[in-house]
Amino acid sequence: MKPRLIASLAVCAALAVGTTGCSMISSQATTIPYSAAEGVNVTGSGPLEVRNAFIVATDDGSEGNFVAAIVNDTDQSHTLTVELGEEGSTIDFTVRVPANSVVSLGGDEEEPILIEDLDTPPGADIPGYFQSGDGEGVLVSVPVLDGALDYLAPLVP
Prior knowledge:
By secondary structure, the chain is mainly β. Helix content is about 15%, strand content about 40%.
């Protein structure tokens, strides 16, 4: 009788470890941060944070419109320096963001930041370097989209 009881307990223990053991050796997907939008979020570039940064390009990828929201949660105004593209063919610009405010770029109400000679087709990524304040800056891949979606169509240059 005892061998049967021990065998039953061993099977139950093996079943419990087998069905719950995966969570012990792999990370949970819900703990991995990601951008839940078309663009990319940029943190760690300094006191400013860039939210949902992307480029809406023409069908041939020759021109693009840089779209993003820049958040300044500090009590001082700061300047964001952006460098898009590969070495030798970069597009550089700066954006001044007042204290405790958000600046939206590329939308209907703001002047678009047009990127001529983009030479990147929709669906690809372009390297982007973002730096503000005393931060070291961050290099991220900025997605290039097209105007196929209704809400992106007005943003195509």
